[in-house]
Amino acid sequence: MHRYRSHTCADLRDSDIGKEARLSGWCHRIRDHGGVLFIDLRDHYGMTQCVIDPDSKAFKLAETLRAEWVVRFDGKVRRRPEGTENPDLPTGQIELFIAEIEVLGEAAELPMPVFGDQEYPEDIRLKNRFLDLRRDRLHQNIMKRGAVIDSLRKRMKDQGFFEFQTPILTASSPEGARDYLVPSRIHPGKFYALPQAPQQFKQLLMISGFDRYFQIAPCFRDEDARADRSPGEFYQLDIEMSFVTQDDVFNVVEPVLRGVFEEFANGKSVTKTFPKIKYADAMRQYGNDKPDLRNPILMQNVTEAFKGSGFKIFAGMIASDPAVEVWSIPAPTGGNRAFCDRMNSWAQGEGQPGLGYIFWREGEESGAGPLAKNIGPERTKQIADQLGLKVGDAAFFVAGKPKDFVKFAGLARTKVGEELKLIKPNTYEFCWVVDFPMFEWNEEEKKIDFSHNPFSMPNFDIDKFLALDPKDESTILGMTAFQYDIVCNGIELSSGAIRNHRVEVMRKAFGLAGYGEDVLEAKFGGMLRALSLGAPPHGGIAPGVDRIVMLLCEEENLREVVAFPMNQRAEDLLMGAPSEVTPKQLRELHIRLNLPQN
Questions:
Q1: Each residue of 315-340: b (16+ CB within 10 Å) or e?
Q2: pLDDT of the residue at 362
Q3: Residues paired with 17 in a beta bridge
Q4: Is 476 exposed, middle or buried (0-12, 13-18, 19+ CB in 10 A)?
Q5: Which DSSP symbol is given to 176?
Q6: How far apart are CA 212 and CA 209, in angstroms?
Q7: What residues does 357 pair with on adjacent strands?
Q8: Helix, strand or coil, per DSSP, at residue 341
Q9: CB atoms within 10 A of CB 156
Q10: Cis bond leading into 537, ω under 30°?
């Protein structure tokens, strides 16, 4: 028999009854039933109930066992007594009657139990992550993560993509988030940077003639943590393709993501064909550029209904500034004062003066509430007809310049959907958001700047683009690019673009954003040189692996699907990173510390 086990803790079945078996694992739970000890033994694969009574020569040792001790049990497999079977366990029909015990590893007092699924403070969980990962939910999440990555990799290869590896030590980039810098020992005063993404390298691979690239790529960004963004590092399914249009990228990515989600969705429905929503429409209808399509509410512009109306606050704002608009958030089934007042209080808690509303109820088909009285039944009906509302429904209103209130309007749409239970359950709703603006106005510097990715191809006639006058601000700010996001259930999985592969177009784009030739040459000289020596049209995208797994595991925080995450302050509490280094190490790197004064 093997030194440690003849079976795993998930193997034994009815067919093994009467056989001798050897199991090794962790003591998950120990129960004393009238002198008989029941020990649930756990390993990576599953759980087996083991039993020992006072007649056994190993009973005295069994009494010393504690939770999370690592042990080896020898014994005979027998059927569980009738009525004690556990249908939730694959091994739930049998138990191992222990004849011999060997303690392989004792456990000191636990800082947190493994049994159960209680919540513990983040610092305790992360400092003892090896214990945290023994808990079934997290253990299964990490295993699912591996299976999802395997599935992504297979689906990419099935479409003719080849997996490449790109450098981890590279040059610092002036765009995006802060870089993690690595000092060079043999080049004093110079630094490598960990890649925020393999963006330039994957484009260079296309220029090198490789055609279809993918990589499960590690990315490093020195940015603050959020629930859907890990501090420090993350992984993405990095994709690039040559001789493609935007639709070609969509046609590759959709079956990959749809297939993976269908494979791991546990019966939830998955969007069959991903709708395309223009950025401008997403902002107006959903209040953000990552719309959650499970929420059926679409916001609408109802400025006309308030123009010149008796509601002087809105009417006065509209009259004084042509940029002012009034948007409505429909609330089907929300037609009662209690709900409307609750939403108004919520808005005040969000730092707003309030949230105007109209609701329709029996006997007041022309609308109820202060706004309805101020604008009158005709305008109220106009709003109801435009929004498709009826008795039992309500509508909320925000006014001002859309750029100032759009974020709050999106939050209000989400809040209404959640409160009225309108959000569709048990589904993964995907969409593409397309036609992002190429440029935006930088209010701080009073200049035109890039809105998103500066290396994207403008969605504009190229000859006319090259002829643009930098003073033609309205045309430049109204321009869109071949940039796109893929969104699932209100979470942005990825941004992508058709790349700007023409040097003269890139020089013009950077020029319109106020960057001189010297900046381009200094920061992107290698890329410019490559583009000038025969670059194919190419494009790609990079869906976030961590976010995909988070959705499929139905978690709300990326920490729950990453084996060894950092905390919110980008600290690894288990390994003690970041840490101080020795003076000798600093001397070798030609670095002198200049720490902030307390």
A1: bebbeeeeebbbbbbbbbebbeeebb
A2: 85
A3: none
A4: buried
A5: S
A6: 9
A7: 396
A8: helix
A9: 22
A10: no
H or E stretch at 39: strand 36-42
The CA-atom distances, in angstroms, between 44 and each of 70, 133, 143 are 13, 11, 10
Identify the band that residue 521 occupies on the pLDDT scale cut at 50, 70 and 90. Answer: confident
More confident residue, 24 or 519: 24
Helix (H) or strand (E) holding 523, with range, is helix 517-531
DSSP string, 489-519: TTEEEEEEEEB---HHHHHHHHHHTT--HHH
For 219, 262, 544, the CA distances from 488, given in Å and listed in that order, are: 21, 13, 11
Helix/strand/coil for 232: strand
User: Do 459 and 479 contact (CB within 8 A), yes or no?
Assistant: yes
Structure-token pair, residue 459: 């969605």
Phi, psi of 368 (to 5 degrees): -125, 160
Token representation of residue 67: 């939770």
E strands, 203-275, are 212-221, 232-242, 269-270
Look-up of token digits 């690239």: 213
Tell me the residue type at 514: G
C-alpha 411/C-alpha 346 separation (Å) is 11
- CA 157 – CA 213 distance, rounded (Å): 10
576/559 Cα distance (integer angstroms): 17
Could you tell me the two tokens for 1? 């028999």
CA distance 434 to 446: 27
- Binned at pLDDT 50, 70 and 90, residue 174 comes out as low
The tokens 């010393």 sit on which residue? 64
- Token readout for 464 is 């006319």
CA-based max dimension of the chain: 94
Q: Sign of the C-alpha dihedral, residues 559, 562, 567, 573?
A: positive
Instruction: Sort residue 570 into left (φ over 0), alpha (ψ -120 to 50) or beta.
Output: left
DSSP sequence for 70-134: EEEEEEEEEEPPTT---TTSTTTTEEEEEEEEEEEE-----SS-SSS-----HHHHHHTHHHHTT
| Confidence label for 364 from pLDDT (cuts 50, 70 and 90) | confident
Q: Which residue type, as a one-letter code, is found at position 301?
A: N
Picking from 491, 471, 465, 498, the residue whose alpha carbon sits closest to that of residue 554 is: 491
369-383 core/surface letters (b: 16 or more CB in 10 A; e: else): bebbebbeeebbeeb
**C-alpha to C-alpha distance for 483 and 60, rounded to whole angstroms:** 69
Q: What is each CA distance from 126 to 47, 384, 562, 572, 575, in whole angstroms?
A: 25, 52, 11, 8, 10
In the block, residue with structure tokens 């493609």? 244
Rounded to two decimals, what is the model's pTM?
0.92
Residues 6+ apart with CB under 8 A from 232: 180, 220, 221, 222, 566, 570
Q: Do residues 110 and 68 make contact, with C-beta atoms less than 8 angstroms apart?
A: yes
